[in-house]
């Protein structure tokens, strides 16, 4: 039987292959690191969004409580009224004060919501920009390292 010829792989090829594997590993590590940092930033953005939603919800319940208490106060004044004129006066005062209170609440709630959305958008934009920048930097570093390795051969 014929013996299989023993072809030896040149040292330069083995060195090149080893450097290529090392560079591929470094490139992968760089990309994974950038992806993890981006994921952490996005997670932080999600936490901020959750916090803002909680603040808006809490404020909404506070407004509801204020408005219901004002209605109960009106009801108490109405049952204590001595005549229809006094009841109508209490009703008119309630409408004026509630109109002003609801305007102020809407303005404040709108400002809180706008601020929350703005923060979320800014964080998302920052996370995407950071991720793209880190991925670009990792790619450029690894492309430069690969170029140097091929130049050495």
From TrEMBL:
This is Phasin domain-containing protein. It comes from the Bacteria. InterPro entries: Phasin, Phasin_subfam-2. Residues 123-132 have a biased composition (Polar residues). Residues 30-126 form the Phasin domain. Residues 123-153 are annotated as: Disordered.
């Amino acid at each position: 039987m014929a013996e299989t010829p023993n072809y030896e792989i040149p040292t330069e090829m083995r060195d090149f292959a080893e450097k290529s594997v090392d560079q591929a590993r470094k490139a992968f590590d760089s990309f994974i690191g950038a992806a993890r940092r981006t994921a952490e930033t996005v997670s932080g953005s999600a936490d901020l969004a959750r916090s803002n939603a909680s603040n808006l919800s809490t404020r909404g319940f506070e407004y509801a409580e204020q408005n219901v208490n004002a209605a109960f106060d009106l009801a108490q004044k109405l049952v204590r009224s001595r005549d229809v004129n006094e009841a109508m006066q209490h009703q008119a005062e309630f409408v004026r004060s509630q109109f002003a209170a609801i305007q102020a609440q809407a303005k404040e709630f709108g400002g809180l919501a706008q601020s929350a959305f703005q923060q979320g958008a800014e964080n998302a934009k920052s996370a995407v920009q950071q991720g793209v920048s880190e991925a670009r930097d990792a790619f450029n570093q690894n492309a430069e390292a690969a170029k140097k390795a091929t130049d050495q051969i």
